[in-house]
Amino acid sequence: MKIAQISPLYEAVPPRLYGGTERVVAHLCDALVEAGHEVTLFASADAATRAELAPVRDCAIRLDTGAFASNTANLAAHLSQMHEVRRRAAEFDVLHFHVDLLHFPFFEDCADRTLTTLHGRLDHKDMAPAYKRWPRYPLVSISNHQRRPLRQARWLGTVYHGLPPQLFAFAPRPAGGYLAFLGRISPEKRVDRAIEIARLAGWPLKIAAKIDRADRDYFRDVVAPLLDAPGIEFVGEIGDADKAGFLGQAAALLFPIDWPEPFGLVMIEAMACGTPVIGWNCGSVPEVIDEGVTGTVVDSVEAAAAAVRTVVGYDRARIRSVFERRFSAAAMAHDYLDLYAGLAGRGGRALQLSA
């Protein structure tokens, strides 16, 4: 099968540091190539991929220190990308987009040959009318909860994110003696809540997190004053090379979010290391966590602090096993191949599941 993967241009594929969508696209491309398919990745030139790379920008927007970042410039880069995909569209059996709905006005005549994975939240103003305006595009959610604001959209399926097992070494006996927070410093990620949980539970907390420009004031005014508390360590932003050690040596991952999380990649990164997750009952969290096996879902700081005593005794080998079954890159690729094949019965070309 000839498959085009169209990635956002904000981060490298995979990202050098923080980044979710581009990381998932990278692992999906490699897994599809491993399965014997011809994959072309439309991304920035700094991508590291087993697919054939179709570079549409010299480097990821975030890494471009020589350019002035603006919404207009970002849009211009993505419009140029859409032009190149459109020019080559006839070469592929399926066009798999990961750029929200940016491509909708340009591919209406071949919408049945496209698949669009939505990676973000869908409850913002103007989204529902836009998806109603372009109803022909087959959509994929990354959790069932993510669909709720757009129940009437043309959902083809839900595919959970996956990661290569070899990327994260299994840690059967964590030696770090700390709780971990990994992600981004922002009000909805609630690192302040993680600090409160750790202090109430009596455990040290290590925080590895990115600080976006938009969240610098929040970090300065809300988070920074909390970092002076005993046992709280701010590590800063880390990349893939450091994640396995950081998560694997943690007793548990705290995921105390306060927003409708579409998926939560860090949860399965922790599971890949055998590390249990204490997650808040928001968004996709109850779908991703196998209650009592890979972690637990809580509704309060007190419940989260009490859960630490329980989850540290979970069978870490079993957590890793669940990750391999549910959230490997190969499992993700298999689920997408099923959907690609399903396009044949929905007006698309006749597609074969295997190469």
From TrEMBL:
Q: Which residues form the Glycosyltransferase subfamily 4-like N-terminal domain?
A: 18-135
Recorded hits in Pfam families, A to Z, give: Glyco_transf_4 (PF13439), Glycos_transf_1 (PF00534)
- Domain Glycosyl transferase family stretches: 178-309
Q: Alphabetically list the UniProt keywords.
A: Glycosyltransferase, Transferase
Q: Which domain of life is it from?
A: Bacteria
Report the InterPro entries cross-referenced here.
Answer: Glyco_trans_1, Glyco_trans_4-like_N
Q: Name one GO biological process term.
A: carbohydrate derivative metabolic process
Give the GO molecular function terms. glycosyltransferase activity
Q: What class of enzyme is it?
A: transferase
EC number(s) reported in the record: 2.4.1.-
Q: What is this protein called?
A: Glycosyl transferase, group 1 family protein
> Which organism's genome codes for this protein?
Lysobacter enzymogenes
